[in-house]
Sequence to fold (513 residues):
Amino acid sequence: MQLSKISDSFCKPVKSINIIFFFVAIACSSYAQGLNPVVKTNKGYIKGDLENNIAVFKGVPYAAPPVGTLRYMPPTEHAAWKDTLSTRKFGEIATQPDGKSARGNEDCLTLNLYTPKTDNQKRAVVVWIHGGSMTGGSGRSMNGHAFSDNDDIVTVTINYRLGVFGFLYLGDIDKRYAQSGNNGLLDVIAALTWIKQNIASFGGDPGRVTLMGESAGAKLLSAVAVSPRSKGLFQQIIPESGSVQCIRDITTAKNERALILKQLRLKPTDAAKLLTMPADTIMHAQAIVCQGIGGNSFFGPVYDGQVIAEDGYKYASGANMPRIRALIGTNKSEARAFVSEQAWSNQPDENILKPLFRDNEPFVNRTYQAKLKTDSPYAAAIGVVTQYMYQMHSYRFAKALAANRIPVYMYRFDFEDGKKYGAAHAEELKYLWDTKKIIAAGGEKAQLAARMHAAWVAFIKTGNPNTAGLPAWPLYKSDTRRVMIFDKSTRVENLKEVFNDKDFPSAVFRLER
Fold:
């Protein structure tokens, strides 16, 4: 039952008894102030809060807690509840390393929902998939008010299982865990299923859902997009700085598991002990294995033959790929965020390239050595790591989609903000999510934020990012390579070339031995 209907039925005047009418009027007045919005979901009623005249529901369970015997299992439906469930506080974040112990909880499969009104309108819906190397972060890291308050968009942010609990492959040990390497991905699909079943009660349109994420979030949503399990659950994607390069082969997944088991002083035949081992113990081992820059690439979905059956680029260019729309982009100098000039001066091959790429390191090093003929060591490093970690894969994905007649808009975020080498990884986020604050400060940043946010809103609502404040933004084609550049001056460029090492595998991280 929706709020407007509850209000209409509850607030009918009682003509014959004035005192009853008086109390009903008081109740109606309280509702008019928007206190404690209540909505019925397919599992029961939930009660939220009103924030900035926006109905907000936090910590809404979209699947059963994956604890006990459900550890390493795919998400299952949450049981129904009888009483109205309070959803006024964020749920627990997913279990993740915190120094020598862990924080968060395995009972973490919740979402947060921000909606202008719980009425019969069909508003566009954006679902935020958070980043964090697939080992950290949570849905609460982004404030849904950024797109709900003034843009009339229903915004959902979600948690999903991370690290060992979200992406550890156990399928060769026990067939019951055949999909364990994709639990984090399956969590996203479970959240999307919940959204499809319930979003209309929150004023959202289940036929206008956009998946949006950055870094690991962009990689994960791209993996979701090339899984047959996700068909019909979304219509658009916005992967910022990430693509299907996160999906790894089973051999790599097994060898990653071996490193975790070795740290736990377990034999490969002892892997079943992970099913009951304390989370703190597992997280401590994971933190050691993933320490340093290599942790950026260590975890990700798996080509398990079930959840993801074929190469992501092949699927994206094939007949089974859903007829979606895409807004894809990267930042000019992504690697500047985690490769410092000082770090690069200290055995960069051993300390940076090998941890990031493992068996793929020779490809990267070959290109780096070639760039040294024209660039300084650090400039060459930023360019090469940016290309191999992010840009090459985003353009490969765009090429596959565009060749499949799927509309794709490409962008590159260049704005330097006074820093050498160009925009680093994640620097575009504040222009999309903190727009109001940046605009209030004025200056060139305000104009950039207004233009970018308006373009994202337009795409979420219509599938087309063109707005009055931008030059005409054309669809991306591999022959013309026309890309929107967000900088001090926003412009469209025809890229002379797009870097692509044809010998480099689909996955960034490969561990074959």
Notes: The first helix runs from residue 3 to 10. The chain is about 35% helix and 15% strand.
